[in-house]
Write a structure and sequence with these properties.
143 residues; 2 domains; 6 helices; 0% strand
C-alpha cells in the first residue's frame, strides 16, 4: 500500500466515523425529544392541566398495554388489520367496477348522476383519495 492509499484510508475512516457520530447524535436527539414530550405529557396530566380522561397519559397507556395478554392484543391487531385490508380491497374493487360501468354506459351514467351527486356531497368518513376524485370528474366530463 502506498502513501496515497494510506492517506485516503485514514481520511475515509475519519469521514465514516464522523458520519456514525452524526447518526448517533440524531438518534439521541430524537429519543430525547420523545422522552421529554412523554414526560411533559405525564406531568401535565397528573397536575390536571390537561384532562387525562380525554388525552389519557403515558403511564395509563403503558399500564393498559401491560395488562393486555399478548394473545388478546395480537388477536385484536390481526382482526383490525384483516378488516382494514378486506374493506380497502372491496371498496377499491367495487369503486373501480362502478366507475367502469358508468364510463361505458351513457344511459346508466345519466340515470345515476343525481344520486351520485347527493352521495358525493355527504360527509366522508373514510379517506378521500385522488383517484376517486379524478374518476368522478372524468365521469362528469362525459355528461
Amino acid at each position: 500500500m502506498n502513501k496515497k492509499d494510506k492517506l485516503f484510508s485514514v481520511e475515509r475512516k475519519k469521514h465514516l466515523k464522523s458520519i456514525r457520530k452524526k447518526k448517533a447524535m440524531i438518534l439521541i436527539t430524537q429519543i430525547s425529544i420523545l422522552v421529554i414530550f412523554l414526560g411533559i405529557w405525564e406531568i401535565l396530566a397528573r397536575k390536571g392541566i390537561i384532562d387525562s380522561f380525554i388525552t389519557s397519559q403515558p403511564s395509563r397507556i403503558l399500564k393498559t398495554f401491560m395488562n393486555l395478554s399478548s394473545n388478546d392484543l395480537v388477536r385484536h391487531i390481526l382482526v383490525t388489520t384483516m378488516e382494514t385490508v378486506v374493506g380497502f380491497l372491496l371498496g377499491t374493487t367495487l369503486g373501480v367496477l362502478i366507475a367502469v360501468i358508468l364510463w361505458w354506459s351513457d344511459f346508466l351514467s345519466k340515470v345515476f348522476d343525481p344520486y351520485l351527486v347527493v352521495l358525493n356531497s355527504l360527509p366522508k368518513v373514510a379517506l378521500r383519495t385522488y383517484n376517486y376524485n379524478l374518476g368522478w370528474s372524468t365521469v362528469h366530463q362525459r355528461l
